[in-house]
Write a structure and sequence with these properties.
about 180 residues, mainly beta, OB fold (Dihydrolipoamide Acetyltransferase, E2P), six-stranded antiparallel β-sheet, Rib_uL2_dom2, translation elongation factor activity, Elongation factor P, Transl_elong_P/YeiP_CS, Transl_elong_P/YeiP_cen
Length: about 180
Amino acid sequence: MISVNDFKTGLTVEVDGDIFTVLDFQHVKPGKGAAFVRSKLKNLRNGNTVERTFRAGETIGRAIIENRAVQYLYASGSEHVFMDNQTYDQFSLEADQLEWELNFLKENMTVNIVSYHSELLGINLPTSVELKVVETEPSVKGNTAQGATKFAKLETGLSVQVPLFINEDDVLLVDTREGKYISRA
């Protein structure tokens, strides 16, 4: 058990039978009435974000989440197959568990699997990945204003805004948290 007064960003807790990670929290001490903690929590099972208010000093369950390194092997229909790097066991996750992550997954890529008491919750991607540009408009000299951008389609199907000097077959570094272009790789 953990007190809500000890909340930290990234802490995983169990509330009403669901597993949440703390995205944001605020301790509030009103002039009249009891203190409370306002928090923003992300459900690790379905990805929904909820706002909850707890009384100061209230205790809730601490959820111990396990992260293991796994390798992404291939997609088979709506299932995506991974292999544990230590035991070589293979397992699959459904596409609806990986909606955002599929924008960045490539075959043979190493990621971390997130599990809670042997229940697979999803994967954690590295903060940035290298992806190849498969389609973009050609840049024309002289049509630039300051900071001009264009769209580029990457090998995973993700479209990102990139500077005009990016061409097809360039390899880009892309932020997996926001899906934005960082630089050329």
